[in-house]
Design goal:
The chain is α/β, with parallel strands linked by helices. It has a single domain (29-196), classed as Vaccinia Virus protein VP39 (Rossmann fold, 3-Layer(aba) Sandwich). The protein is built from 6 helices and 11 strands. The chain has a 7-stranded mixed beta sheet with strand order 5-4-3-6-7-11-10, sandwiched between helices. The structure holds S-adenosylmethionine. Residues 14-15, 29, 51-52, 54, 73-76, 79, 100-102, 116-118, 121-122 line the site of S-adenosylmethionine.
């Protein structure tokens, strides 16, 4: 237990994750605060992917809440190493991999897709949304930057550039077989929920 605490304290964290043993990773991105957006959705028996999973906070939550198969990807090797260590501490069966959203296997589908504050870091938000559309069965929660401007508006930031996108453009990308709902302001950007219409 002492070694676990030592390891947690030695790391730098983005996500603040509360573990079953009561220990907390000292990040500023609170996983628990964000989970309020997902209240009322049942994850029991569902397959789940978190794209840009960081240290795996949402994946730990999904597995603890009964998801059947959980997969987290991130381009940052250090974050995936942290996620793997945390799942071992929690003794949970979760697949973590260093991988980009743009390299996902489009034949592999997931009941629930999370993609929180990741499309704000990529240069092709439209391709990112198309990939999510392709891999989702039922439901996706996406936190991204919206604009009232037509279609896209460039955002420059310290990592390069990305785009804010108009909600009508998102509806156009998902098409008539999906319901796109604006859930309001997320922790950092805007939260949308996309649901397949049966
Ligand atoms: C602002 S953090 C958000 C982390 C997490 N989703 C959350 O809400 O706590 C953005 C994360 O997206 C990851 N990321 C950026 N571009 C990515 C890509 N193309 N594919 C997968 N992950 C990516 C970053 O490495 C980082 O961990």
């Amino acid at each position: 237990m002492n070694n676990v605490k030592k390891w947690i304290d030695s790391q730098d964290w983005y996500q603040k994750i509360k573990l079953s043993n009561g220990m907390i990773t000292k990040g500023h991105g609170s996983v628990n605060n964000r989970l309020r957006y997902f209240e009322g959705i049942s994850i029991e028996g569902k397959t789940f992917i978190d794209i840009g999973c960081n240290s795996g906070g949402y994946c730990l939550w999904a597995k603890k809440n009964g998801a059947s198969r959980v997969y987290g990807i991130d381009i940052d090797k250090k974050r995936i190493e942290q996620a793997i260590k945390l799942k071992e501490i929690e003794n949970l069966d979760i697949g973590f991999e260093v991988k980009s959203l743009f390299d996902l296997d489009l034949n592999q589908k997931y009941d629930i897709v999370f993609c929180i504050s990741v499309l704000t870091e990529v240069e092709d938000v439209i391709e990112g949304l198309n990939i999510i559309k392709n891999i989702m069965n039922d439901l996706a929660f996406i936190e991204l930057s919206l604009t009232n401007d037509k279609d896209l508006k460039i955002r420059k930031h310290k990592k390069g550039f990305s785009y804010s996108i108009n909600i009508n453009k998102i509806c156009e990308i998902f098409g008539s077989k999906f319901d796109v709902q604006l859930m309001g302001r997320g922790e950092r950007y805007d939260m949308i929920r996309v649901k397949r219409i049966y």
